[in-house]
Specification:
By secondary structure, the chain is mainly β. It has one helix and five strands; from the N terminus they run βαββββ. The longest helix is centred in the first third of the chain and has 16 residues. The two termini are 25 Å apart.
Length: 120
């Protein structure tokens, strides 16, 4: 008997740190990092705007280490909570060359517009 696998890919985006994104120590500015993460989750939600309020609310943010000039970063997201009132997306920022090297993690909350009706 064949089974259907969940083949939905985790959304991802690449981002390279440029001179306009750094401070005097060549480290990525925190506001630039946050804006990239926020825009990333907004783009994920835009196709579901009839059920989810498209304005993210930051729930939790952990900056673990710095990224520097010319670092290529990978942003990935996954659903960590989904119920009748809200959706929580976990977003991770990692070095593209080493995906075990996490730069930052954030959880964004999105309220649902209408409660979902679940089949019983």
């Amino acid at each position: 008997m064949k089974t259907i696998e969940n083949t939905y890919p985790s959304p991802k985006k690449y981002f390279t740190v440029t001179k306009k994104d750094i401070n005097n120590n060549n480290a990525l500015l925190t506001n630039v990092l946050y804006n990239e993460m926020e825009n990333f989750v907004k783009n994920i939600i835009v196709s579901h705007k009839e059920t989810v309020v498209p304005t993210p609310k930051l729930y939790k943010l952990q900056v673990l280490k710095n990224a520097f000039l010319n670092d290529k970063l990978l942003l990935k997201s996954q659903i960590i909570k989904y119920n009748t009132s809200e959706l929580h997306l976990l977003t991770k920022v990692m070095l593209h060359s080493n995906t075990n090297d996490t730069i930052c993690k954030a959880v964004f909350k999105f309220p649902l517009i209408t409660p979902n009706v679940m089949a019983s």
